[in-house]
């Protein structure tokens, strides 16, 4: 029987927020962190917050983006949870409201089957402050999950989702097992399980 596990990336598979690492390079970290936390708590529309934060990245060299993304810290237990779930017959996917520059190398390293995220627009090797992609809206993860379930023939009963913020709510609506990982209160309320320690291996106790 096919099973599906979908993970958020920032503050779930990766220990931190990718955009905060970028903003730190430009000296805007505090401003970006504030907008990010408002969006993750559900106090700010995700699309508006994403556009606002990415605009602050204008002028950051693409080479610096790639360098930062190569060294992002993975969450403790990330490698083990992916291999553990795959051993149980799960397809493991990453949905991120963040950026492909970060998810692609990390998911390759972790052995994740596919990643869906957004693209930072660059011109002449420098970020323009614009963003596009399939994960820009608060409902995007839920929409993509339903499409994947239909494509793979996997039911909500055989779907596990893991996230930490408000933009994960839409995918929580379509999964039987919903794990809030060190999450904001808004997501914990919609979860079937909550993990309060930074160790993704705790998920393996839920699915066995």
Average pLDDT works out at: 95
Shape: globular
Number of helices: 10
Strand order of the largest sheet: 4-3-2-1-5-6-7
Explain what this protein looks like in three dimensions:
The protein has helices at 18-26, 29-40, 46-55, 62-70, 78-87, 100-110, 140-152, 169-172, 185-188, 202-207, and strands at residues 3-8, 90-99, 114-123, 126-133, 159-163, 177-181, 193-195. With 208 residues, the protein is α/β, with parallel strands linked by helices. It has a single domain (3-207), classed as HAD superfamily/HAD-like (Rossmann fold, 3-Layer(aba) Sandwich), CATH 3.40.50. The protein has a 7-stranded mixed sheet with strand order 4-3-2-1-5-6-7, with helices on both faces. Helix 9 (185-188) links the parallel strand 6 (177-181) and strand 7 (193-195). Helix 2 runs antiparallel to helix 3. The model has no long low-confidence stretch (mean pLDDT 95).
Helix and strand topology:
Blueprint: E1 3-8, H1 18-26, H2 29-40, H3 46-55, H4 62-70, H5 78-87, E2 90-99, H6 100-110, E3 114-123, E4 126-133, H7 140-152, E5 159-163, H8 169-172, E6 177-181, H9 185-188, E7 193-195, H10 202-207
Parallel strand pairs: 1-2, 1-5, 2-3, 5-6, 6-7
Antiparallel strand pairs: 3-4
Keywords:
globular, alpha/beta, seven-stranded mixed β-sheet, 42% helix, 208 residues, single chain, Rossmann fold, 10 helices
């Amino acid at each position: 029987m096919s099973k599906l596990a979908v993970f958020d990336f920032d503050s779930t598979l990766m220990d931190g927020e990718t955009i905060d690492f970028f903003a730190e390079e430009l000296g805007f970290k505090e401003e970006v962190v504030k907008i990010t936390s408002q969006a993750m708590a559900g106090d700010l529309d995700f699309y508006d917050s994403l556009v606002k934060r990415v605009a602050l990245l204008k002028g950051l060299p693409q080479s610096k983006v790639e360098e930062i993304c190569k060294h992002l810290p993975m969450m403790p237990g990330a490698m083990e949870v992916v291999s553990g779930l795959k051993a149980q017959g799960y397809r493991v996917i990453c949905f991120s409201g963040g950026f492909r520059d970060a998810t692609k190398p990390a998911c390759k390293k972790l052995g994740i089957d596919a990643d869906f995220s957004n693209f930072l627009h660059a011109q002449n090797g420098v970020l323009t402050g614009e963003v596009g992609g399939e994960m820009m809206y608060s409902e995007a993860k839920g929409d993509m999950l339903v499409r994947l379930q239909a494509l793979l023939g996997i039911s909500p009963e055989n779907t596990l989702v893991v996230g930490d913020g408000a933009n994960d709510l839409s995918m929580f609506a379509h999964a039987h097992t919903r794990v809030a990982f060190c999450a904001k209160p808004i997501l914990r309320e919609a979860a079937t399980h909550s993990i309060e320690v930074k160790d993704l291996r705790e998920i393996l106790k839920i699915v066995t």
